[in-house]
Task: structure prediction
Amino acid sequence: MNNQLSNISTQYRKFTKGQYVKHTQFNEFLDFFEDQDRLSRVMLQGVGIVCGFKPELIYKGRLLSGIRLSQGVAVTTDGDLLTLNNTNKVSEDLYVSDLKTIDIQNKEYTHFKVYEDSKVKYEPFRENNGLGKQVELWELATEKDADSDFQPISKLAGLENKYLLLYLESYEKEIKPCRGVDCDNHGLQQIRNLKVLVTTADGITNILGADFLPLSVDDIPKEKRLDRVQSHPLFIDDILKYGKQKRVIVEKLITEQGVDTHFSPSDIKSLYSDVLVNNEYGKVIFEKINAIAQLIGLPHVDYQDFRERLESFLIQNAGFQYSYDVVKDLADTYFEIIKLLPKAFTVDLPDLNSFPKHIMLGKLIPVKQLDFSRHRFYNSSVLDEEKTVLKVKLLIRRFTQQAKGFRNFTVADDGSAEIKITPSQKLGALSEKAVPFYYKISEEFLKTWNFNKTSNRSYEDNLTYNNFLSPEEHIQEPLLFNIDKNSFYNIEGHQGMHYQQAFQILNQIKDEKQLGFDVMILSLEELADNKDFFRAYFNEYIDKNPGLEHKRGVEKGGTFIILYESSENPVVIADFSLPYICCNPKVDVKLTLPTDVICFKSGSIPFTVYPINGVVKAVVATGLDGGVEQLPGGQYVFNPTKVSPQLHDKPIAFTVNGKTTACTIKVIKEPDVHIEVVAVEYPESGSNVTTVKFKVSGQGFTTYDYTWDFLQNGNFINLKPDAQGNVSYTYYNLNPSYIPLITVNVNGKGCPRTVIIRNWYNGPVTVIESISFPKGNCCEGRTPVIMADAGGDQSFPLSVNAFVLQGHGSGAQSLYYSWTQTQGPSVTLTDINKPSLTVKNLVIGTYEFKLTVIDAISGAYATDLAQVIVSEK
Result:
């Protein structure tokens, strides 16, 4: 067998002037450059069929009249460049070859004869590894080239079991004895005859180097395969059939069972679990991936472990859509792989003995689009500009990471759930989209996600729910940067969360980041008297709005839909999206309160609502009271006394007709402050000064405002403790017979507290040496009986904004009056040391006021309470 590259010339000699050149020296020169030319084709361009060489059977009167073979280009592993040609000019010189032309579209072969390869004895055409007899071969010829040895092709039987070959018959013509004076112009003729041959299935099997005709190249044991370049995953049966995930059509529930049917979460889950069970959780994709991985030397992917994790995950009432998503992701990864496979015929160092002088053209009557008996073109890796083989390997590793990295997590809100919106892509390859949050993110995982980013060493820049590998702000907060090229938003972290909380957070993010989509809530429970524009009954909504589909987010200009079961089970169990905004009326809503901070003891304050008949709700977790009340007349008020203690000191947000508003309020607790008298400096001889020292304590006591009434006369002064809580006050000419109550009003962020200090004076004892009484009864004096009347219980409308309580006292000539508020919202008190008390700046609520009447001489006193109700009307 005359294989040029079986022995490669690596050097040659240059000729010098006057040198006698031997044939070996000249041939060495020719061989070197021919070998370099052949090696350049094989190593730097590739081997196999470049294009063309497509056979077509021609029939006349139902009889085969010819086989038309289109022009083509092919390169053998010996570096031969094959094309069809015709003789263009017959040489008149006996020792010069005829000239050929390749300017032809096709050649039609009309005759055949048995072919005997007696001159070359080409090994692939012989059994027993080239040592046995020749396989069955027939040579085809055109009508012009056929001689008497050829038969009409109509007599060629068994066409359905015939295969076509190109064979370059290559040998040196035998030298005949030279006759005449000069033999220098003869030379040794190199014969290159391009033959079009037909063989049988057994002949193709022998060429491939196995003992049987394979259903696919994978069936041929590698150690027996002669045509080693042929080992490629593209020839695995049905490898290019895309294992697409079936689409879940939610409307099918209504069309099959009717709009009046009550559906449960299990009905929604079945839509997705049935698809997964029917395709065995993507088993066929795993089988194909493992077949490809085996051929290119990558590890096996564990399907059974993946399936068990998915089955375990599907037990939950929420999150079942993510099981569907991950199998769809795997199918998308497989689709990326098979798109690259036809371009992945690259060979770094092709085996030179694979098909040195022949090219397989395939079956005469093909039954498959991909024919294992037809050579493809195997690019040299130097021409693989897109690094196709490396991409395929990376995608298979990504498939493995996806199967291993699916998190079997609990889909529930344990208090740490966080909703995130990540910009992504609606269309295109999975590698161009943001990484879904149900994968375990690791450096190894991100390195397999996007080939270009990994090649550029920027794999940390892949967007995902939680990319802890990159500290860059544009990765951690991508919505703060330009997202013009992003057509989709991944929305994750909401399933398992209370639907109201999820709705409020989604709208908050959407409004803050100015994102172009809408949010809708669906309930599996019928909604009676529903006025919420952004909430609807599941059956009615999908009956009117076809095209509902789970996409793990929403495209720009679409509607994102969250689904919950009922008021008893208000957690989000699934999500869907529509490719358009639907179908909320664009009614502007407004909501305001008189203040954004209020004390928990305060009375109710009214909401101002637009539209007037709008429904106001607090955005709070299930089981907590957000303080919203509706009065009999329809007016909505905020009652801080109703607010759950867990919500104190936290902003409470509200919705009107289900739409988020900017209105918030914070309910403040009563200041936790303790005030005590720590020392009293009594007057010494000749002094009239009494100094009282106080100690103020409590968390955050320095942040409060303090007003003090030291003389019990209603005149308050501002006096703030120092950083250690110290306060002092000096009395002059203090009468020990009348020790005033000390009143401290503490105001913390709008929430007041009154502290009264009694019995603080314990002055020095006065010793009486003797008492001289006048004649008469020494015990005629008596302690007076003091009476107090606060005016009785009363009620006033809020519209008066002020009222007066008329108090009365009796039992002594010199009486001292003191009014204090003991219950109810914070109001303004005027004339607290007079019989009549004026109360201003009212809010709705129940109040209680105490009147104290004191005899200034004896110290005897009496008290009385008055309850006042302030209502809307």
Q: What stands out?
A: Confidence is low (pLDDT under 50) at residues 211-218. The CA atoms of residues 53 and 72 lie 5 Å apart. The two ends are 114 Å apart (CA to CA). The first strand starts at residue 46 and ends at 51.
